Amino acid sequence: MNKAKIAPSLLAADFGNLQRDVEMVNQSEADWHHIDVMDGLFVPNISYGMPVIKSIAKHATKPLDVHLMIVDPDRYIKTFADLGATILTVHYEACTHLHRTIQAIKDAGMKAGVALNPHTNVNLLKNVIKDIDLVLIMSVNPGFGGQSFIENSYEKITDAKELIKMNDSKALVEVDGGVTAKNAKALIKAGADVLVAGSFIFKSEAPLNTIKDLKTATDKWSIFEL
Length: 226
Ligand SMILES: O=C(CO)[C@@H](O)[C@H](O)COP(=O)(O)O
Ligand SMILES: [Fe+2]
Prior knowledge:
With 226 residues, the chain is α/β, with parallel strands linked by helices. It has a single domain, classed as Aldolase class I (TIM Barrel, Alpha-Beta Barrel). Helix content is 37%, strand content 18%. It has helices spanning 18-27, 50-59, 77-83, 98-107, 153-166, 181-190, 199-202, 207-225; strands at residues 5-8, 33-38, 64-69, 87-91, 111-116, 134-138, 172-176, 194-197. The protein has an 8-stranded parallel beta sheet. α3 links the parallel β3 (64-69) and β4. α6 packs parallel to α8 (207-225). The longest helix has 19 residues, at 207-225. The mean pLDDT is 95. The active site is at residues 36, 176. Pathway: Carbohydrate degradation. It catalyses: D-ribulose 5-phosphate = D-xylulose 5-phosphate. Its cofactor is a divalent metal cation; Co(2+); Zn(2+); Mn(2+).
């Protein structure tokens, strides 16, 4: 059975009601809390800093899937381990010594993920694919929620799956940006194991039902089309 995980991106939450939105995810059928950390340097936007992230962590009951869009992420590995992050994902483009960074994340007790910008070739991960737990395919240019899905991401997901298989790696493939119920099935069919969705969930009228719909869409595919 091919069941995809759903990771709502809190970037699209109502920051005035952040606790309410974190608790909505707790009660939903979602699997992880996706936390986007942006520094205004690696990406043009700044999301939220440690006090807000600490508050999210305090109320969250599901694994914390932290997506770092910051330069020199090594500086914050211990901070996120102390915070209780389950998965810490760094950008390939932001790491000079990616192998060392991956080892440091694992040594700190977290799962290690590597994210790729839309222009970055999946095969650049060949020499670390066995060491990592997650490949994050960015299906928009990182920095903002609410952007349109980039169509060649399907091919990148398939490439990532192939690289994982060829190298006997256990890494999951996560896709992030412009995910909706419309493209969810096709993304899973292409090889995605985890779907991140921000605007589609939090800007909907009934986020709890939207998460349920996403989960159902992905399950149905596995039952009827595998
Ligand atoms: O990492 C990012 C953006 O850089 C994402 O996690 C977005 O927050 C996804 O938002 P939507 O495209 O689903 O609105
Ligand atoms: Fe993200």
